[in-house]
Design goal:
- The chain contains six helices and 17 strands.
- The chain is of the alpha+beta class.
- Strands 1-2-3-4-7-11-10-9-8 form a nine-stranded mixed sheet, sandwiched between helices. A five-stranded antiparallel sheet has the order 16-15-14-13-17.
- The protein is globular, with a radius of gyration of 19 Å.
- The termini are far apart.
Length: 293
């Protein structure tokens, strides 16, 4: 059981370690309480919470490379009130402010288990979508393969998975969610429309009110995927934003076009082109978007 004496105010914290929870800087009291609940409920085993960092994924990867992540203390969450160089997929930047939620979770994941690695991106996005549906019914989140989460006609959350050669059995799962603001998405050549939970739900939502249930839903869905692969695929198919739509994608260094046929039993994107149905795996897809032409 995780126990700690929580500060009575959000005064600067030099660098305190409470058992398996490290807080660094002038962090928010609401964030401290959310992390405490996740550890006491055994959703997380440890956490590192700071006021500002370049990227929570980078912070986690540095700790992994330095041997500072103990497998016995996983899942471990890296949380920041603000990040200055957050990364999205394909080199894009994820902007952060007081209305966004940015965190990373380090979990055990065997790279040799190809099927599990294929489904992991889908499971993370599905965990976010399930959280939205449960907390804000009758709204239903859609998923843009492999793991962008859309709500109310725009992107509300994104996911970035990374690994380090120093510890191939660990995966860093980065999540960014627009809770009460929609910061600009840099390098947004596709003209992605952004939404926030507050905007779509129609009332003010505070980011650390959603943090604990969101992390819980993600971790639960990942664990479910390890034993019930098929149900994850089926649920993702029901939420797939691209199925039946004309899309463009990068394949063998050239832009191709086709109609999305859905998701394969292995979690790949199926696209019908002039050359037949092509299977787009996560390692091969560079850009997938709904065409506006």
């Amino acid at each position: 059981m995780f126990m700690t004496e929580v500060p009575s105010s959000c005064q600067p914290i030099e660098r305190r370690s409470w058992n398996m929870f490290v807080a660094d800087g002038d962090v928010e009291l609401a964030g401290i309480r959310a992390v405490e609940s996740l550890i006491s409920n055994e959703v997380l085993a440890s956490a590192d919470y700071c006021e500002t960092t370049s990227s929570t994924n980078t912070r986690a990867l540095v700790d992994i490379r330095n041997g500072d992540v103990e497998e016995a203390l996983l899942p471990k969450c890296y949380l920041a009130d603000g990040q200055t160089a957050g990364r999205g997929r394909h080199g894009r930047s994820w902007q952060s402010d007081g209305g966004t939620l940015t965190f990373s979770v380090v979990m055990k994941q065997r790279m040799s288990d190809v099927r599990q690695m294929q489904i992991l991106p889908l499971a993370v996005g599905l965990g976010v979508a399930r959280f939205i549906d449960f907390e804000y019914a009758p709204l239903q989140a859609k998923l843009k393969w492999p793991n962008d989460v859309n709500l109310g006609g725009g992107k509300v959350a994104g996911v970035l998975l990374e690994t380090s050669g120093d510890a191939p059995g660990l995966t860093v799962i980065g999540v960014g969610m627009n809770v009460s603001s929609e910061p600009d998405l840099q390098n947004n050549a596709q003209g992605v429309s952004l939404r926030s939970l507050t905007q779509v739900v129609g009332r003010i939502i505070h980011r650390y009110d959603v943090f604990a249930p969101l992390v819980g839903s993600i971790v639960h869905t990942i664990n479910e995927a390890r034993t019930d692969f098929n149900s994850i695929i089926e649920e993702f198919r029901g939420r797939c934003l691209l199925t039946g739509q004309e899309i463009s994608f990068q394949y063998q260094n050239r832009e191709c076009f086709g109609v999305c046929q859905g998701i394969s039993e292995h979690g790949a994107l199926l696209v019908r082109t002039s050359h037949g149905v092509q299977t787009i795996n996560s390692g091969e897809a560079r850009l997938v978007r709904i065409s506006k032409g």
